UniProtKB/TrEMBL annotation:
Protein's UniProt keywords contain Acyltransferase: no
Listed transmembrane segments: 6-35, 56-75, 81-99, 119-141, 153-174, 195-216, 222-240, 247-270, 297-320
Coiled-coil parts of chain: none
Keyword set, alphabetical order: Cell membrane, Electron transport, Heme, Iron, Membrane, Metal-binding, Transmembrane, Transmembrane helix, Transport
InterPro entries: Cyt-d_oxidase_su2 (IPR003317)
NCBIfam families (UniProt xref): cydB
Native source organism of the sequence: Glycomyces niveus
Membrane topology listed for this record: Multi-pass membrane protein
Protein name: Cytochrome d ubiquinol oxidase subunit II
Superkingdom of origin organism: Bacteria
Subcellular location(s) per record: Cell membrane
Pfam family, one: Cyt_bd_oxida_II
Primary location class: membrane
Protein family membership: Belongs to the cytochrome ubiquinol oxidase subunit 2 family.
Amino acid sequence: MELTTLWFTLIAVLFTGYFILEGFDFGVGILLPVLGRDNRQRRAMINTIGPVWDGNEVWVITAGGAMFAAFPHWYASLFSGFYMLFFAILVGLIIRGTAFEYRGKGDTDRWRRNWDRCLFTGSVVPAFVWGVVVANLVRGVPLDANFDYTGSIWGLLNGYALLGGLTTLLLFSTHGAYFLHLRTTGDLADRARRLGWKLGVATAVPVLAFLLWTQIAHGNGASLVLIVLAVLALAAGLVLDYKDRSGWAFAATALTIGSASAAVFCALWPDVLPSTSDAANSLTHENAAATQKTLGIMSWAAVVFLPVILLYQGWTYWVFRKRVMVERIPVA
């Protein structure tokens, strides 16, 4: 395998892992005002992701760093052209992170409600905008001969991209509901299961529409296989959630997100950022790549450090694997 192919694959894996792990984080934040009937239930929901949410964000930081080092032209064109979208994601993540830290610093209901609103907003915005980014990535944008984006912010808000945003928003919400069903007990878990099933049904339509549009407009044989797998996993998640199989339902939506993300990257290949104005201006895995020496050094670093990171994060999930019980949350 060529080093450019290897690093495109690794970046795709990092983004896919981010969407799977941060997806249920976003989902919990989105569902906070829906499922959390009182402060104890909302605290229980937050406690399910409290030990892992910041670690999950490492995946996208690593993906961005790998893109910068392995494909500097891709990084420059993407982050400059999609600046306003990434800025919206960044603001949402900052608001969200601040809400996690400051919610428990005050004793009044008003204080907590305000930070709960921040947590909700900071989850909704990135969950939606990431779908817009991914959709535009595979659809392509107008680039000039210097690989600079020549469109406007409004050009990024096209119908396909907005459908992508709606897809990730609903899919992450469903993923979060299944996660809460898995990680909580009692009435909160029961309501999460019922809401997860309803969300899963509502999610099926935009997911099918977005993946079908992707396959028709940009897909290939590999993406078709992954899209079929994503659809089957989504259907399996609905059945498993209905039968109260929380762990398997959560695994099914994880597979849905992973397969759909992989399908998008397969549809993108061999480009990394297609040009809609002139195909000759498209960024590919070859003309966007760093030197072979740089890629070689990065590959050895990845061989050493990636397993360590995976083992550490796996250990973190294992330590905090127990269900969160509302009755054990202090009233105050």
